[in-house]
Amino acid sequence: MTDPRSPIFAAIKGARSNKPFTVDDVAKVHSFLDSFNVPRESGLVPSDRIVDFLKGIERLHRIRPDGRVEAYMPTADDVPTIGYGSTGKDIYLGLIWTVAQCEARFARQLDEFAAGVRDALDGAATTQNQFDAMVSLAYNIGLAGFQQSTLLRHHRAGRYEQARAQFAVWNKQAGKVLDGLTKRRAAEAAIYRS
To answer: For the whole model, what pTM was predicted?
Structure first.
Protein backbone atom coordinates (compact mmCIF):
# COMPACT_ATOMS: atom_id res chain seq x y z
CA MET A 1 0.00 0.00 0.00
CA THR A 2 1.28 3.48 -0.85
CA ASP A 3 1.61 5.80 2.11
CA PRO A 4 -0.98 8.56 1.56
CA ARG A 5 1.17 10.94 3.59
CA SER A 6 4.32 10.59 1.47
CA PRO A 7 3.32 13.21 -1.14
CA ILE A 8 2.50 15.68 1.64
CA PHE A 9 5.87 15.16 3.32
CA ALA A 10 7.59 15.49 -0.09
CA ALA A 11 5.78 18.77 -0.79
CA ILE A 12 6.70 20.19 2.60
CA LYS A 13 10.31 19.13 2.18
CA GLY A 14 10.41 20.76 -1.27
CA ALA A 15 8.95 23.96 0.12
CA ARG A 16 11.74 23.95 2.73
CA SER A 17 14.47 23.71 0.05
CA ASN A 18 14.84 19.98 0.77
CA LYS A 19 15.97 20.61 4.35
CA PRO A 20 15.83 17.22 6.18
CA PHE A 21 13.08 16.62 8.73
CA THR A 22 13.94 16.26 12.39
CA VAL A 23 12.01 13.81 14.58
CA ASP A 24 10.10 16.79 16.00
CA ASP A 25 9.22 17.99 12.47
CA VAL A 26 7.86 14.55 11.56
CA ALA A 27 5.80 14.38 14.77
CA LYS A 28 4.32 17.86 14.12
CA VAL A 29 3.35 17.01 10.54
CA HIS A 30 1.80 13.69 11.63
CA SER A 31 -0.11 15.45 14.40
CA PHE A 32 -1.44 18.03 11.94
CA LEU A 33 -2.44 15.34 9.42
CA ASP A 34 -4.06 13.29 12.20
CA SER A 35 -6.30 16.29 12.98
CA PHE A 36 -7.65 16.04 9.41
CA ASN A 37 -7.94 12.22 9.55
CA VAL A 38 -5.42 11.72 6.74
CA PRO A 39 -4.76 7.97 6.89
CA ARG A 40 -1.36 6.51 7.59
CA GLU A 41 0.14 3.57 5.74
CA SER A 42 -0.09 1.59 8.92
CA GLY A 43 -1.66 2.45 12.24
CA LEU A 44 1.63 1.96 14.03
CA VAL A 45 4.33 4.61 14.10
CA PRO A 46 6.71 5.35 16.98
CA SER A 47 4.96 7.41 19.64
CA ASP A 48 6.35 10.58 21.18
CA ARG A 49 6.89 8.50 24.32
CA ILE A 50 9.32 6.13 22.62
CA VAL A 51 11.05 8.95 20.75
CA ASP A 52 11.72 10.64 24.11
CA PHE A 53 12.77 7.29 25.63
CA LEU A 54 15.26 6.58 22.83
CA LYS A 55 16.67 10.09 22.86
CA GLY A 56 17.07 9.85 26.64
CA ILE A 57 18.85 6.49 26.45
CA GLU A 58 20.92 7.19 23.34
CA ARG A 59 21.48 10.86 24.19
CA LEU A 60 24.12 12.90 22.44
CA HIS A 61 27.62 12.10 23.69
CA ARG A 62 30.93 13.75 23.00
CA ILE A 63 29.58 17.23 22.38
CA ARG A 64 32.50 19.46 21.47
CA PRO A 65 32.93 23.06 22.71
CA ASP A 66 31.73 24.29 19.29
CA GLY A 67 28.45 22.39 19.78
CA ARG A 68 29.18 19.72 17.19
CA VAL A 69 29.11 16.01 18.05
CA GLU A 70 32.03 13.59 17.73
CA ALA A 71 31.92 9.82 17.09
CA TYR A 72 33.07 7.62 19.98
CA MET A 73 33.24 4.00 21.19
CA PRO A 74 30.52 3.42 23.84
CA THR A 75 32.35 0.34 25.18
CA ALA A 76 35.53 -1.51 24.27
CA ASP A 77 33.48 -4.22 22.47
CA ASP A 78 31.26 -1.79 20.56
CA VAL A 79 31.46 -0.02 17.20
CA PRO A 80 31.94 3.69 16.46
CA THR A 81 28.77 5.60 17.35
CA ILE A 82 27.57 9.15 16.85
CA GLY A 83 24.46 11.16 17.63
CA TYR A 84 21.56 9.18 19.07
CA GLY A 85 23.21 5.77 18.87
CA SER A 86 23.83 5.90 15.11
CA THR A 87 26.21 3.27 13.77
CA GLY A 88 27.06 1.98 10.32
CA LYS A 89 29.75 1.77 7.67
CA ASP A 90 29.76 5.55 7.34
CA ILE A 91 30.43 6.11 11.08
CA TYR A 92 34.08 6.12 12.13
CA LEU A 93 36.20 7.54 14.95
CA GLY A 94 37.09 11.15 14.16
CA LEU A 95 33.76 11.82 12.41
CA ILE A 96 32.11 15.09 13.49
CA TRP A 97 28.46 16.04 12.87
CA THR A 98 26.26 18.98 13.70
CA VAL A 99 23.32 18.39 16.03
CA ALA A 100 21.05 18.84 12.98
CA GLN A 101 22.84 15.96 11.24
CA CYS A 102 22.36 13.81 14.36
CA GLU A 103 18.64 14.66 14.45
CA ALA A 104 18.17 13.91 10.74
CA ARG A 105 19.98 10.56 11.01
CA PHE A 106 17.92 9.61 14.06
CA ALA A 107 14.66 10.47 12.26
CA ARG A 108 15.66 8.42 9.22
CA GLN A 109 16.84 5.44 11.25
CA LEU A 110 13.77 5.49 13.48
CA ASP A 111 11.56 5.38 10.38
CA GLU A 112 13.61 2.48 8.98
CA PHE A 113 13.44 0.48 12.21
CA ALA A 114 9.72 1.15 12.61
CA ALA A 115 9.09 -0.06 9.04
CA GLY A 116 11.20 -3.16 9.68
CA VAL A 117 9.32 -3.98 12.87
CA ARG A 118 5.95 -3.46 11.12
CA ASP A 119 7.03 -5.82 8.34
CA ALA A 120 8.29 -8.43 10.82
CA LEU A 121 4.99 -8.33 12.73
CA ASP A 122 3.25 -9.50 9.55
CA GLY A 123 -0.13 -8.22 10.68
CA ALA A 124 0.01 -9.67 14.22
CA ALA A 125 -2.23 -7.87 16.72
CA THR A 126 -0.01 -5.28 18.39
CA THR A 127 -0.70 -2.41 20.76
CA GLN A 128 1.08 0.94 20.46
CA ASN A 129 3.12 0.21 23.60
CA GLN A 130 4.15 -3.25 22.34
CA PHE A 131 5.18 -1.72 19.02
CA ASP A 132 7.16 1.05 20.73
CA ALA A 133 9.03 -1.42 22.92
CA MET A 134 9.91 -3.62 19.96
CA VAL A 135 11.09 -0.62 17.91
CA SER A 136 13.36 0.39 20.80
CA LEU A 137 14.78 -3.13 21.00
CA ALA A 138 15.31 -3.35 17.24
CA TYR A 139 16.96 0.09 17.22
CA ASN A 140 19.52 -1.28 19.67
CA ILE A 141 20.06 -4.88 18.48
CA GLY A 142 19.41 -4.39 14.76
CA LEU A 143 16.57 -5.57 12.55
CA ALA A 144 18.23 -8.90 11.74
CA GLY A 145 18.46 -9.78 15.43
CA PHE A 146 14.88 -8.70 16.02
CA GLN A 147 13.52 -10.58 13.00
CA GLN A 148 15.14 -13.81 14.17
CA SER A 149 14.22 -13.39 17.84
CA THR A 150 12.17 -15.70 20.00
CA LEU A 151 10.52 -12.52 21.29
CA LEU A 152 9.05 -11.84 17.84
CA ARG A 153 7.90 -15.45 17.44
CA HIS A 154 6.11 -15.34 20.80
CA HIS A 155 4.52 -11.99 20.01
CA ARG A 156 3.25 -13.10 16.60
CA ALA A 157 1.75 -16.19 18.25
CA GLY A 158 -0.06 -14.03 20.83
CA ARG A 159 2.10 -15.27 23.73
CA TYR A 160 2.62 -11.79 25.14
CA GLU A 161 3.97 -12.71 28.58
CA GLN A 162 6.59 -14.99 27.01
CA ALA A 163 7.47 -12.22 24.55
CA ARG A 164 7.80 -9.69 27.37
CA ALA A 165 10.14 -12.04 29.25
CA GLN A 166 12.39 -12.27 26.19
CA PHE A 167 13.49 -8.64 26.46
CA ALA A 168 15.76 -9.67 29.35
CA VAL A 169 17.67 -12.06 27.05
CA TRP A 170 19.14 -9.13 25.11
CA ASN A 171 21.33 -7.70 27.91
CA LYS A 172 24.77 -8.86 26.72
CA GLN A 173 27.52 -7.51 24.54
CA ALA A 174 30.28 -9.85 23.42
CA GLY A 175 28.88 -12.40 25.90
CA LYS A 176 29.11 -10.03 28.89
CA VAL A 177 26.06 -8.81 30.80
CA LEU A 178 25.99 -5.02 30.82
CA ASP A 179 24.14 -3.16 33.57
CA GLY A 180 22.98 -0.47 31.15
CA LEU A 181 21.48 -3.05 28.79
CA THR A 182 19.82 -4.88 31.69
CA LYS A 183 18.13 -1.63 32.78
CA ARG A 184 17.14 -0.74 29.22
CA ARG A 185 15.61 -4.17 28.62
CA ALA A 186 13.64 -3.93 31.88
CA ALA A 187 12.30 -0.52 30.81
CA GLU A 188 11.36 -1.85 27.36
CA ALA A 189 9.61 -4.86 28.91
CA ALA A 190 7.65 -2.49 31.14
CA ILE A 191 6.63 -0.42 28.11
CA TYR A 192 5.64 -3.58 26.24
CA ARG A 193 3.42 -4.70 29.13
CA SER A 194 1.82 -1.30 29.81
So the answer is: 0.77
> Is the domain of 129 the same as that of 174?
yes
163-181: per-residue pLDDT in tens? 999 999 999 988 899 999 9
Instruction: Write phi, then psi, for 169 (nearest 5 degrees).
Output: -65, -30
What span, in angstroms and rounded, lies between the C-alpha atoms of 21 and 15? 12
Cβ atoms 55, 66 nearer than 8 A: no
CB distance 155 to 121 below 8 Å: yes
The radius of gyration computed from the CA coordinates of the chain, to the nearest angstrom, equals: 17
50 and 96 part of one domain: yes
User: What confidence tens digit (pLDDT) does each residue in 39-75 have?
Assistant: 555 568 999 999 999 999 999 999 999 999 999 999 8
Structural domain span for residue 15: 1-41
Angle at 5 between CA 106 and CA 137, to 5 degrees: 35
Q: How many domains does the chain have?
A: 2
CATH number at 59 reads 1.10.530.40
For residues 9 and 85, state if they share a domain.
Answer: no
Do 50 and 138 belong to one domain?
A: yes
Question: For residue 34, how far is the Cα from the chain centroid?
Answer: 21
Type of residue found at 146: F
